[in-house]
Amino acid sequence: MNILVVNPNSTVAMTRKIVAAAQKAAGTGVTITGATASGTPASIEGHYDEAMSVPGLLACVENAEAQGVDGIVVACFDDPGIGACREIATGPVLGLCEAAVKAASMLATSFTVVTTLPRSVPVIERLVHGYGLSHQCRRVRSAQIPVLALEDPGSNARDKVRAEILRAVEEDRCEAVVLGCAGMADLAQWLSAETGVPVIDGVGVATRMVEALVACGLKTSKINGYSRPNTK
Amino acid sequence: MNILVVNPNSTVAMTRKIVAAAQKAAGTGVTITGATASGTPASIEGHYDEAMSVPGLLACVENAEAQGVDGIVVACFDDPGIGACREIATGPVLGLCEAAVKAASMLATSFTVVTTLPRSVPVIERLVHGYGLSHQCRRVRSAQIPVLALEDPGSNARDKVRAEILRAVEEDRCEAVVLGCAGMADLAQWLSAETGVPVIDGVGVATRMVEALVACGLKTSKINGYSRPNTK
Amino acid sequence: MNILVVNPNSTVAMTRKIVAAAQKAAGTGVTITGATASGTPASIEGHYDEAMSVPGLLACVENAEAQGVDGIVVACFDDPGIGACREIATGPVLGLCEAAVKAASMLATSFTVVTTLPRSVPVIERLVHGYGLSHQCRRVRSAQIPVLALEDPGSNARDKVRAEILRAVEEDRCEAVVLGCAGMADLAQWLSAETGVPVIDGVGVATRMVEALVACGLKTSKINGYSRPNTK
Amino acid sequence: MNILVVNPNSTVAMTRKIVAAAQKAAGTGVTITGATASGTPASIEGHYDEAMSVPGLLACVENAEAQGVDGIVVACFDDPGIGACREIATGPVLGLCEAAVKAASMLATSFTVVTTLPRSVPVIERLVHGYGLSHQCRRVRSAQIPVLALEDPGSNARDKVRAEILRAVEEDRCEAVVLGCAGMADLAQWLSAETGVPVIDGVGVATRMVEALVACGLKTSKINGYSRPNTK
Amino acid sequence: MNILVVNPNSTVAMTRKIVAAAQKAAGTGVTITGATASGTPASIEGHYDEAMSVPGLLACVENAEAQGVDGIVVACFDDPGIGACREIATGPVLGLCEAAVKAASMLATSFTVVTTLPRSVPVIERLVHGYGLSHQCRRVRSAQIPVLALEDPGSNARDKVRAEILRAVEEDRCEAVVLGCAGMADLAQWLSAETGVPVIDGVGVATRMVEALVACGLKTSKINGYSRPNTK
Amino acid sequence: MNILVVNPNSTVAMTRKIVAAAQKAAGTGVTITGATASGTPASIEGHYDEAMSVPGLLACVENAEAQGVDGIVVACFDDPGIGACREIATGPVLGLCEAAVKAASMLATSFTVVTTLPRSVPVIERLVHGYGLSHQCRRVRSAQIPVLALEDPGSNARDKVRAEILRAVEEDRCEAVVLGCAGMADLAQWLSAETGVPVIDGVGVATRMVEALVACGLKTSKINGYSRPNTK
Question: Hey, which family's this protein in (chains A, B, C, D, E, F) (predicted)?
């Protein structure tokens, strides 16, 4: 089984981290192919960055489809271009937010999302509302760090995320925490150990859930909503 | 007051019709500038077309911002890239769906949306859900016509839209009808006369509502969600 | 175009302030006619005052309809008698709450409403829920001031409203603030300057939105919900 | 225990029927006092009638409060002025819609409301939405009869209601039916026998529920929302 | 009229308290029969206890049905097995949570639930969501006491509940408080006097509401959802 | 990895079919252990059957936990006792409905559930509402067949399910169909081929999703809601 894991931003170091997390999660016999969208912003911080990342993302998906990929992970927590990807994909397509919050809803009665910047909070709130899980989401919080600080070993980004998780447990009475940025993919295990709360990383969960859907023979429906783009 | 009305698809004939509708609706002292996004699909039929229209749309917005525009109408009923436009805009930004369904909710206790193709139905349902108006929206229907058939005088597109409105009134018990495509902008008056139900075109309403917000001195909030894109 | 702006309470000083705000917002060629409902409470603080204001309000609307008014603003944030007004009106009818929260939802991803007394908070929460915007409304707050304190230059009402807005920005993480009382119509600009957050006054927005609907040729639907009252 | 049952419209024949239904439902030791609001419409068909009935209704409530009533039923399915009544009442206050749909939600997983005229359908839909029971309400239907036809023995109103209930069971797959007009109070038992589906009349249920709340020592909360009207 | 009040847990002392509260609330001519489910947990603290209490609860209901009971109260705030009870019951069946929160929603615009342990909070939140009253429920709080501490006169459980109610009034701005455990049935009056806020006990309300439904001739619908269990 | 797949009803033939479906879906290195709850109804048709199946189901889970199982599938579409199972389980626990509708929501913009008997329709509607997916669920339909007819090769159950799916596609405009009974686990592929719409079986999806969560190192949160049952 071949799964494409696309990083919609153009930071290759982040792709490497993401692909490592996907490979760690993937089952036997699954080949993970990483891709970095080109011509896209270095990080996705808000609606504009998200929109500018989509054509590059779609090019990666089209390329992979031409080579016969079985399923696709869009490795960004803002779930950019998911509907568009689903139209051109044959197999299942998942973004990190959808995968992670649906997983969280299976493991705990409530969860909090911890993301990077305050500007991403309403983006994620709207996604969670659309996925129908507002009643299980205690709050979307930001650790007040730029996305790329997570790539900088000298920054205190990890500590800020840990501190925000501890605040979430204390103030939100949440039972699980979802990491709200693909760049946190390598931190889940450490953060869970440090805080004592289940911490969910979207990269691993999305990869393995796409694998699950493919293994069950399921594909993206081609009736109406996600049917292939019309030729004009 | 200067209002930009952008057609996110690349069909210039459609832009002409849209600009005419905007100009007809605009108040005294308002200058409407039309723009056609370039490098975008000829029509927006589904998520993929929508995503591919956004960079071209944003270029038009950036260009208008540089020239000091006061408000912006994104003249497509799928409300593409609205969040992204709001990040780079100073004044208010409205898409057709948001403007039209909010207007409909002020004029009737319920409404039905009539759009072009079945594939656009779930796109619009999701928008209406996000705008919080599902409880007033009886149904989103399609007249089973491609968008560009509305540009073809020889097609029976107009009749199909009229027939679908009559079905909506009969079957949905709706009190108003929202036209779910920018290409129907010139039909609202005729359809209303033919069917006896208030018919709402998004182009006029969006234009005049942006004008209303500008006239009240209101601008897009620059706190968090729609703050200007970060430089990396 | 003639727009009636009715103050449903009987305090003429408040009508004057409201009409001034409406006139400031209205476009070229729009005549604003102010009216004060008679035999109604001096201020509308809660459900009882609201109910007692409606027959006087409806009399003003009937009178204006007889003279051929094009649209109507009910200048109270509790949106009293809107459905009843819509039944007897030909043109569009808007209350301040509906206009202001729908405007806020177009300018920011979230907003907080700041009203006068704690007793008005649940009234407004119920309205916002009915308009489908609970998911964008962070909180409805009160500045703990009686409505008529806003008419008393010697009171510290203005300062209390400003302080409450600052608390809203800090505690609610809202991106815009809606003023939850018609008596605050003259404060929006000052409060916005003082607090750095977009502050939305319902009087101006409702006036200009009614104008927008009228300009687009839209009227209140006469099918079912808002059809003219039955003769018995 | 003294319970006031107010008919907000001015048709005394209807009050008689309502009081009979209330008395039939009331427990031992409960005195039902009927009242007909004066100066109000002969029937309540839509928002305007509803609004015009409220001052007369409130006068009845004030009068009863002065005499020490324990609880109040507002005997109209549009639940007019309930919030206002609660502000001036000491004991519990219930309208027919709230009582009946909450009762229905306890007896069946879903229900349909059958009311008189199409114009009342959206009024009731909005109430049900406000009471949080949209997910259990299959549909609000009208039997296409004016309210006062129910008072005319020569009309076929009863048969039309029966026919509509049968359609509801067939088409809506509902498990119970709520009668959506106080004027149907005498029909519940007959309709239930004729149709084989539980049929709920709001007058009986509201009366006995108010009695239940009073018996438990519960009164309308006087904190904020329903606190007594402010003196100006 | 005969009403069964079943305590689904096996603590007889709690049954005694519950039956006393039910008898105090019941009207003239109503016989309350208490029952303690056997083979069930000593207290219901969470999903597992709840599930393990249901077969014993259903046995009590079957036994009472055989003897011709008119209505049933399931005296636990987690509303265990309500759907199952409704299938085998002829008359109405109510759990404490459904009865109490629906009563609260009639007496105040908002309420807070105060329960025993933190683990019960999400159970109750899910119930309130299912009953459609999330928008009136400010918060579900726990007083951090085990259920059986309420049976221990030497514990400080009562004081902890009182303190939590005071925090609810202060922090949640609620207008009423619902006691979230059957074991608090004897505290409502004292707590209301101590805190000045209406305090609602589910036992009394559920008993008297079942009585109300029975008195109105209403039974559990036997169409689909609550029809009698199929024989295999 | 060891996954327990429990059939909560006592029909061993059904367990065999379920285990086969689970094994077909499971990844390399996953051992599926089937279990049939004992002392439970032969099929789960409604709330009563569901409740009576839970203690037997919990016994199977406890037994498996003692032997160190990694994750658990509760193989019934009514999701019986899921919260209770999660309290006593260490790893993830999924019911068929939750798994299948969340999967469907990832593959199509809307879906319809086709179950066996009309009495199960409201049970599933309530589950879907609780999972937050009502807005994507077009309808829950029944094929009007008893559960055990699916075990009878001589019945026309399969044909009735196929016919109901075709009606769903036609009338509901759904883009995918979820099979609403564990006994349909062997039909998904055939039904999908016959109807041309993606058909989702919960057994396979739940198994592979539990596997996904386990593979990501995720366990059921032990904070509050799903913490281990208290010892009394």
Answer: Belongs to the HyuE racemase family.
Rounded CA-CA distance E45/E35 in Å is 20
Q: Give the residue among B21, B84, B23, B94 at the shortest CA–CA distance from B55.
A: B84
| Beta-strand pair E2-7/A31-36 | unpaired
Q: Which chain B residues are Cβ-neighbours of F110 within 8 angstroms?
A: 122
CB–CB contact F176 A221 (8 Å):
yes
In a domain, C75, yes or no: yes
E91 and E116 share one domain: no
Query: Is the distance from CB of A176 to CB of A104 less than 8 angstroms?
Result: yes
Q: Determine the structural domain holding residue D78 and report its residue range.
A: 2-95+205-226
SS3 of A115, please?
A: strand
**What is the C-alpha to C-alpha distance for residues E225 and A35, in angstroms, rounded to an integer?**
50
* Radius of gyration of chain D from its Cα atoms, rounded to whole angstroms: 17
Question: Which residues on neighbouring strands pair with residue D33, listed in sequence order?
Answer: D4
Please indicate, yes or no, whether residues C179 and C157 belong to a single structural domain of this protein.
Answer: yes
pLDDT at E153 over 90: no
In a domain, C231, yes or no: no
CB contact under 8 A, E109 and C129: no
pLDDT digits (tens, 9 = 90+) for D162-212: 999 999 999 999 999 999 999 999 999 999 999 999 999 999 999 999 999
Same domain, B198 and B103: yes
For B114-131, the pLDDT digits (tens) are 999 999 999 999 999 999
What pLDDT, in 10s, does the model give residues B58-103? 999 999 999 999 999 999 999 999 999 999 999 999 999 999 999 9
Q: Where are the beta strands (DSSP E) in chain A?
A: 2-7, 31-36, 71-74, 93-95, 111-115, 137-142, 177-179, 199-201
Contacts of residue C109 in chain A, CB cutoff 8 Å?
122, 125-126
For chain C (232 residues), the mean pLDDT of every run of 10, in chain order, is: 98 97 97 98 98 98 98 98 98 98 98 98 98 97 95 93 97 98 96 96 98 98 98 88
Question: Does B19 fall in a domain?
Answer: yes
What is the average pLDDT across F93-112?
98
3-state SS, residue E165? helix
One domain, residues E214 and E144: no
Query: Which residues, at least 6 apart from E108, have a Cβ–Cβ distance to it below 8 Å?
Result: D220, D221, D223, D225, D226, E136, E174, E175, E176, E198
Return the CATH number at E34: 3.40.50.12500
Nearby residues of C71 by Cβ (< 8 Å), 6 or more positions away = C1, C2, C3, C4, C91, C92, C93, C94, C210, C211, C213, C214
Interface of D to F at Cβ within 8 Å reads: 109-110, 135, 173, 175
| Contact call for B226 and C135, based on CB within 8 A | no
Looking at the structure of chain A, the number of domains it has is 2
Cα angle, residue F127 at apex, residues F124 and F129 outer, rounded to 5°: 110
Measure in Å the smallest separation between the Cα of C184 and chain B Cα atoms: 15
| B130–A47 C-beta distance less than 8 A | no
Structure tokens at A28: 């036997």
Q: Is residue F18 located within the same domain as residue F80?
A: yes
Residue of A nearest to C172 (CA): A139
Contact B115/B141 with Cβ under 8 angstroms? yes
Q: What is the mean pLDDT of residues E180-189?
A: 96
Are residues A130 and A222 located together in one domain of the fold?
no
Which DSSP symbol is given to F231?
P
Which residue, among C67, C74, C68, has the nearest Cα to C37 in the 3D structure?
C74
Residues F77 and F140 occupy one common structural domain:
no
Is C232 part of a structural domain of the chain? no
Q: Which pairing describes strands A177-179 and A199-201: parallel, antiparallel, or unpaired? A: parallel
